[in-house]
Amino acid sequence: MNKLQVLLLLLIVSFVSVNNAQEKRKIQIEYAGKLTIDEENYPGAKVLTRDDKQQVHIIHGGSNMWCDKAIHYGEENFVEAYGNVSVKQGDTINMTSKYVEYSGITELAFASGDVVLTDPHSTISSDTLYFDRVKQQAFYRNGGKVVKDSSGTITSKIGRYYMDIKKYQFVKDVVLVNKESTINSDYFDFYSDTGFAYLFGPSIITTETSKTYCEKGFYDTKLEVGYAIKNARIDYDHRIIEGDSLYFDNNKNFASATNNIKVTDTLNKSVIKGHYAEVYKAKDSLFITKRALAITVQEKDSVFMHADKIMVTGKPDNRIVNAYYNAKLFKSDITGKSDSIYANQKTGITKLINIPRLSSGDKFSKARKPILWNFENQMTGDTIHLISNNKTEKIDSLLVFNHAFIISKDTLSTDGYNQIYGLRLVGLFNDENVLREVNIIKNAESIFYARNDKQELIGIDKAKSGSIKILFAEGDIEEYSRFNQVDGDLIPESKYPQKDKYLKGFDWREEERPKSVEDLFSDDPPLELPVIKGLEDYIPSGQFFDQDMLERIKLAGKGKPHHNKAARNIPITHESKNLIEYPSAFEHAKWFKSAVKVTISTMATPGGKSVANEITGTGTADGHIYQVLNNTEGTFKFSIWMKGKGKTRLRFQRADKDYAVYNTLVVNLTDDWKEYTLIGTKKADGSKLRCLISDIQTNDTIYMWGANVVEVNKE
User: Fold this and answer.
1) From the centroid of its chain, how far is CA 252?
2) What PANTHER family does the database record attribute to this sequence (predicted)?
3) Could you tell me which residues come within 8 angstroms of residue 214 by beta carbon, excluding any fewer than 6 positions away?
4) Which residues make Cβ contacts (< 8 Å) with residue 277, sequence separation at least 6?
5) Which of 373, 623, 634, 645 has the CB geometry, 3.0–4.6 Å to 595, for a possible disulfide?
6) What is the pLDDT of residue 4?
7) CB 128 within 8 A of CB 117
């Protein structure tokens, strides 16, 4: 075979292939009961109607469509279908509606009127729906509903279904309802095969027993587990749980939280803080650690309790708090410290307890007795009970068991201490929560610095007795009585032996006394919080009506865009033309700048394919950056992606000396990329349009990307 024969063969094969491809792209009429030509109403088209046997049957590229009536434009490879329209693609996709437009060139279908699209796992219903067979995507933009078997029903303003990866993407007014929960969100990605849901923007998950809020989260609708980050919060049974990251399992009624945790008990007016917590709702228990702090909120004076670990158990009307390992207590009028603290919020009893030592190598093996401080008095013993009146929020009494020791410094001497020791101590408080009366029971010993009315030291009183009763006034001993006294002497200080100034077991521990809430953490090791990665920022998908689709629609028009039936019902407006030059290059001279610095950062853009500009305030006045457009009148939409901290503004202004503002949008920036949009109308006033990002303060840092200004509502 010579070269000419080979060339001719190739041309023939190419022609046949192209011709076959073109034939495959042609819409085929498989069956019609009646064919009519109506050039007046449908120029260049054939009108096909059903008969009594069956509907009009249309085929294209493996898809079948049935309807009661069809208008077929053969030259444009376009068909309109009316009445009981049914479309099937393979064995998986079925769509019914009242009306369908379909182009064999774009392979884009537009359906309206009670549209229902089903696949083996879900059903989409909407008043209007677009179905792109090339991308295998369905899209609605005027409200729709998706029913997903066991996962429930989802409604939204905008919805998009990616059939190849079984993914739904919902935007605006998103609501998922199933038997167990209701989810409300702004941006919601849902995978129909796994039941995984990803939430972005303000979102709420409501169950019969709880409500979870977050601005970024994940939820497994099948297993009913998930996690929430960014301003995360769970509300249930008079409890509010807040933290940087919250995990929840609705099957087990379990939740855990990490970093900057706050658990508020609204019924008992208490707050628990820390950096790791676990909550078992069914057991009414809460465990918290890492700088754990329990706060009993009182009208006049709150009580703060800190320990390595805090456990809260019991029903709301009978809460019990256990703080263990290096536990401390702080109140303005009384503070304490022990290995463990037990508090019963119903009975008002607080116990300071020693934990049994395991071995000499244990970190708490050094025996330090529980201790309480009340104004000038230090009290220690093997166990201390503090009894309070929950109604009056006042301390009633104090019990110290075994080796009870109370010490107060004699304020007028350098090394003198009033001391009382015995087997047991019973203390009573006055209405000001000040220790008023102390009774030392059994084997009482005491050392008092006795003074006259002029506060002159008479001598040092040391005695032993069966018991002692002391009355205090303003921190000093007002009077005391000894019962069954064994011995006692009042000795001048000059003749008092130095070695006898302290009773056996004397241990002045003023340096351990917490003076503030911050002092409760003085013994804690440095805090290192884990880095929470969580979910990536919301990444907007490419437009459904993207450039690829526009090219297909343009091709279908064959150079006659005004008569392009494939472009009907496609929301293509003048918004496709961006009036901004260099929309992401804010360092360009086209962008005018005042009191700001623009640099190229390492921050990834929302799509992750590039990096954004960083705009930093530098001057004493509000910084701003803007472009002036030649447009003098019309309605415009200004949108831009931003993230950062603080506030800024989007503005439409007159580009003349007075800079009159047509419209403004206050933007509260967040750590996530978000697209902000401002719409304003400018009348013909002889000035150009200025598009401004303003109010950038000194040292403010804002990341910007994708500025877009388009004219809207223009015919």
Assistant:
1) 22
2) LIPOPOLYSACCHARIDE EXPORT SYSTEM PROTEIN LPTA
3) 199, 203, 228, 229, 230, 231, 232, 233, 246
4) 241, 243, 256, 257, 261, 263, 286, 287, 288, 289
5) 623
6) 40
7) no
Q: Are the beta carbons of 636 and 704 closer than 8 angstroms?
A: no
Secondary structure of the chain: what % helix, strand, coil (to 5)? Answer: 10, 55, 35
Number of Cβ within a 10 Å radius of residue 677 = 11
Residue with tokens 């049994």: 356
CA distances from 122 to 161, 247, 543 (A): 10, 28, 23
Return the CATH number of the domain spanning residue range 574-712: 2.60.120.260
- In angstroms, the first-to-last Cα distance of the chain is 62
Torsion of the alpha carbons at 489, 490, 494 and 500, rounded to the nearest 10: 40
* CA-closest candidate to residue 553, choices 228, 134, 117: 134
Count CB-CB contacts under 10 A for residue 372: 25
Q: Where are the domains of the chain?
A: 24-134+567-572, 574-712
Give the residue from 438, 512, 519, 520 showing the smallest Cα distance to 475. Answer: 438
Buried b (16+ CB within 10 A) or exposed e, 686-698: ebebbbbbbbbbe
334 — phi, psi (to 5°)?
-155, 135
Residue 416 CB contacts under 8 Å (≥ 6 apart), including other chains:
409, 410, 449, 460, 501
Which token pair is 25? 């792209």
Amino acid at the residue 337 = K
Which secondary structure element, helix H or strand E, spans residue 543, and what is its range?
A: none
Q: Is CATH 2.60.450.10 the classification given to domain 24-134+567-572?
A: yes
- Region class of 173: left (phi > 0), else alpha (psi between -120 and 50), else beta: left
Greatest alpha-carbon pair distance for the chain in Å reads 138
Q: What own/partner pairs with CB < 8 Å and gap ≥ 24 does 615-620 have?
A: 615/586, 615/693, 615/696, 615/701, 615/702, 615/703, 615/704, 616/696, 616/699, 616/700, 616/701, 616/702, 617/696, 617/697, 617/698, 617/699, 617/700, 618/698, 619/594, 619/595, 619/698, 620/595, 620/698
Cα 308 from Cα 288, distance rounded (Å): 9
The answer to whether 405 and 421 have CB atoms below 8 angstroms apart is yes
The amino acid present at 431, given as its one-letter code, is D
pLDDT block averages, 10 residues each, the chain of length 715: 42 39 71 91 92 94 94 93 94 92 94 92 91 92 85 88 89 87 88 85 85 87 84 84 87 86 84 89 84 81 88 82 90 89 87 69 60 88 87 82 90 85 89 84 88 86 88 75 83 88 91 91 86 72 79 76 74 67 91 92 82 87 89 88 90 84 89 88 86 89 92 58
| DSSP 8-state class, residue 299 | S
Which residues, at least 6 apart from 636, have a Cβ–Cβ distance to it below 8 Å? 579, 652, 679, 680, 681, 682, 689, 691, 709, 710, 711, 712
Taking the C-alpha atoms of residue 467 and residue 445, their distance in angstroms, rounded to an integer, is 8
CB 88 within 8 A of CB 119: no
Nearest to 614 by CA among 585, 650, 647, 648: 585
Structure tokens, 544: 């459904």
Q: What is the pairing mode between strands 108-118 and 93-103?
A: antiparallel
Q: Which of 370, 375, 367 is nearest to 334 (CA)?
A: 375
Distance CA 185, CA 172 (A): 7
How far apart are alpha carbons 677 and 638 in whole angstroms? 6
HSE of 490, CA atoms in CB hemisphere, 13 A: 6
Give which of 456, 467, 457 is closest to 421, Cα–Cα: 467
> Are 546 and 683 in contact, with CB atoms under 8 Å apart?
no
Strand partners, 70: 48, 81
